[in-house]
Amino acid sequence: MIWFGCTSTINGLYKAEVIHRRGPWRSFEAVEFATLEWVDWFNNRRLLQPIGNVPPAEAEAAYYAAIEPSAIACSAAIWMRLARRSG
Fold first, then answer.
1. Residue 42: inside a domain, yes or no?
2. What is the domain extent for residue 11?
3. How many domains, in total, are found in the chain?
4. Comparing C-alpha atoms, which of 13, 10, 11 is closest to residue 21?
């Protein structure tokens, strides 16, 4: 249920910032390109105060650079096991 709430919030933010603010749209391609631009901004350039005013991609890169490779491999193995169980 948590994921549903997160996706609903992000979808609402996307619609408010892109679809409604920048419309009306002339083509599907224009919406698609605007969506790609927004996703790039959201992941790579948006500054998040709770993580030190850095973009999410930068924070993620710093996190993985700081942990040991064995922890990453262990985490990946756990996720793969969980994916096999649910699929």
1. no
2. 1-37
3. 2
4. 13
Whether residues 53 and 85 share a domain: the answer is yes
Provide the whole-model pTM: 0.63
Q: Is 24 helix (H, G, I), strand (E, B) or coil?
A: coil
Query: Same domain for 58 and 85?
Result: yes
Q: Does 32 share its domain with 64?
A: no
3 state SS of 54: strand
pLDDT digits (tens, 9 = 90+) for 41-74: 999 999 989 888 999 999 988 888 887 777 666 6
Q: How far apart are CA 83 and CA 11, in angstroms?
A: 25
Residue 58 lies in a domain: yes
Average pLDDT over residues 4-17: 82
Q: Is 72 helix (H, G, I), strand (E, B) or coil?
A: helix
Is 31 within 8 Å of 25 (Cβ atoms)?
A: yes
Tens of pLDDT, residues 73-87: 666 777 777 778 765
Whole-number CA gyration radius for the chain? 17
